[in-house]
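ugh ok fine here u go
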Amino acid sequence: RNMSSAGPEGRKKMRECEGLIDSLVYYIQGAIADHEPNDKATENCVCILHNLSYQLEIELPESYAQSIYMQRRNISNNDKTPGCFGTRSRKVKEKQQDTPLPEEKSNPKGVESLWHSTLIRIYLSLIAKSTRNYTQEASLGALQNLTAGTGPMPLAVAMTVVQKANGLPGIRAMLQSSHPAVKRTAVSLLRNLSRNPSLQNDIAREVLPDLVSVLPKCEPGCAMACDTAASICYTLFNLTQGSSHSARLLLTAHGLPKVIAISTNDSNMFSKASRAASVLLYSLWSHTDLHSAYKK
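structure:
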C-alpha cells in the first residue's frame, strides 16, 4: 500500500508485476463473498488498486492504448473541455459522444482488470456494504480516477457506473456520510460523471436534490467543506447548463438561496467556492423561462 503511492515509476512497476493485480481483485472478491467487507486486508487491497488507477489512461503503455482504442479519435489539447468554467463547446460534446468505447475482455488479466466492469462492480459493492470509511473512500476514489479525463476509457467506466451497474444509489448514500473525506470523494466522482452529456439526465434525476441538501456552508476553519461546496457547484453547473428541467429541479430543492449565500462570501479562503457558485448562478440565469420563478 505504501509502495503504490510512490509515484509514476512505482505505479508502473506494480502494474507490470505478474499476478499482483489479479491477486488483489481475487482477495476482495472472496471477502465480499464471505460477507467480510470490513477487514483491514480488504482496505489495503482497495487502497492499492485506488493508487494504481491514478492517471491510468495517461500512463498506459502504447501497446495497451492501441489495443483498447483501435478506433480512437485524436483530440487535440485545444479541443478539450475547459472544466466547469467557461462554455462547453458543441465540438467537444460531439467528440465525446462520437468516441468509440473500448471493447471489454471476458477474462481480463493484470492491468486490464483495473478498468474492467467486474472491478467497477466490486467497488460499488464495497461502497454499499462496507462500513469502513477508508475502504469506502478508496472505492470512490478509484472510480473517480477511472472517470477522470475525456477519453474512451473514462466514458466507458462512467456509463458502466451509471447505466449498467446502477451505481448512483450507493454513491448518493455516501453524500450523507459523517466522514468529510468520504463525502468529498463522492462529490468529486459525481462531478466527473456529470461531465458526460449522455448521463446528465439520469444523474440529475437521481442525485441533484441530494447534492443541494448537502451543500455546505463555507464557515471559518472549514476548508474541506468549502472544497466540497465548490465541487458541488461545478457538478450542478454541468447538470443544469443544458437543461431547464434540471435547473427547475435545483430551484424546487431550495438550492438558490444556498448558492447565492456561497457566491457572496468574499473571504479569500473561500474564493474557489464563491467563484464556482457565481458561475453556476450565471448559467442558471441563461434559462430565460425560469426568470419569473427566480425572482420570486
